[in-house]
Design a protein that fits this description.
Radius of gyration: 18 Å
CATH architecture: 3-Layer(aba) Sandwich
Protein name: Glutamine amidotransferase domain-containing protein
Organism: Apiospora phragmitis
Number of strands: 13
Oligomer: single chain
Order of helices and strands: HEHHEEHEHEEEHEEEEEEHHH
Number of helices: 9
Pfam family, one: GATase
Length: about 300
């Protein structure tokens, strides 16, 4: 899709849209360093027992990104250190930020639904994404899993980019991303170690034509050619990966999919072993934070 899109969201204080809005203002004024404020568009609600142990999607993303700030803040004076505050918006229930004052980025989360599902909330989310992308150029956009797919198909659909069932089947557990040079050169830390983190997907983003000149793939894996997309200063996605998830969450989700019959029980042992492999999910957080903090 291309061209300007009218942005219909009302411009009001964020606190009028979500009860945590007043906390957002305090986070920006009390911190001695920079607080990156992120609106997490939750496309799925975590099971209650995950919420109890880990929090909702916004809290899980926040904790992951805060872990990524440790290395970046080493040796910096207090006023130069960065922190992160995430705010939850349940887009399945129609909750969106009504103002972007103080917001640095949006994250579009994963979902049990597919991007091609004909559901009203997905159509609304597409319109919202187009409004942000075309009318709010200072807001950075990140997506993982379902979020990656939605961003790819919504913003690059006119360039032959679409989502389909993966020919390689399920990609599960910790997998390594083989970075494209055009992406890795923007993030020096990738010269020392590749990103590898948890995966859980059976769909993938494919490009029938070359990506537009300002866009690139972040890299590939053994089962997936496009493991994410990058537009400098604007968009970053991680293909169906879940660097925000730890082993506990991923182990639980794999077992639930096996129980539901979505994953063959005969291969579940292999997948669960992949879940337990070492990862560099904190490096993936550092790359995301680098994307957020570089104009």
């Amino acid at each position: 899709m291309s061209g300007n899109v009218e942005f219909h969201m009302p411009v009001q204080a964020l606190m009028h849209c979500h009860p945590q809005g007043s906390d957002m203002t305090r986070a920006a004024t009390k911190a001695s360093g920079r607080v990156l404020q992120i609106a997490v568009l939750e496309c799925e609600q975590m099971p209650p027992y995950i919420v109890q142990s880990h929090g909702n999607f916004a809290k899980i993303f926040e904790r992951w990104l805060l872990a990524g700030t440790h290395q970046l803040n080493i040796g910096k004076p207090a006023h130069e250190r960065i922190s992160v505050k995430a705010y939850s918006f349940n887009v399945k229930e129609g909750h969106y930020p009504s103002s972007f004052q103080g917001i640095d980025a949006i994250i579009i989360s994963g979902s049990v639904n597919g991007v091609n599902d004909d559901l009203p909330w997905i159509a609304t989310l597409r319109r919202f994404l187009l409004g942000v992308y075309h009318n709010l150029p200072w807001i950075k956009i990140f997506g993982s899993c379902f979020g990656h797919q939605l961003i790819a198909q919504t913003l690059l659909g006119d360039h032959g980019v679409h989502v389909k069932r993966s020919n390689g089947g399920w990609e599960v557990g910790v997998q390594e991303v083989y970075h494209d040079d055009s992406f890795a050169q923007n993030f020096p830390s990738l010269s020392e170690s590749p990103m590898c983190y948890q995966f859980l997907h059976s769909d993938e983003v494919v490009a029938e034509d070359n990506l537009p000149p300002t866009w690139s793939s972040i890299g590939s894996s053994s089962l997936c050619q496009i493991q994410g997309l990058y537009q400098p200063g604007r968009v970053l996605t991680y293909q169906q990966g879940h660097p925000e998830f730890d082993r506990i969450i991923m182990n639980d989700f794999v077992r639930r999919l096996v129980k539901a019959g979505a994953i063959d029980a005969a291969v579940s042992g292999t997948y669960l072993a992949f879940v337990e492999r070492d990862d560099t999910r904190i490096l993936a957080a550092e790359v995301f934070l680098g994307f957020l903090t570089v104009d």
